[in-house]
Amino acid sequence: MADLFHEDRPTIPRIIAWQELNKMVPYSRVHIHRLMKAGKFPKQVKIGRNRVGWLESEVADWLNARINAR
After folding, report:
1. DSSP, res 1
2. CB–CB of 62/54 below 8 Å?
3. What is the DSSP letter of 44?
4. Which alpha helices (DSSP H) does the chain contain, by range?
5. How large is the average pLDDT for residues 31-39?
6. Of residues 39, 44, 36, the one with CA closest to residue 20
7. Strand arrangement, sheet containing 51-55
8. CA 8 from chain center: how many Å?
């Protein structure tokens, strides 16, 4: 069996769904979509025909930028 945590392997990006995104960033869906459209929030990733998510690392970077800007 392959070692999933082997040091030579790249890390797999974690995609989060709306429920988890909303816990991290307590904005409405409409506001998130406005921010994405304005280029002020990480864009969603289409992961299926009727399914989207966000890269957790991009959302974390976005949050950290807000924290650092205060």
Report:
1. -
2. no
3. P
4. 18-24, 29-37, 56-69
5. 98
6. 44
7. 15-16, 51-55, 45-48
8. 24
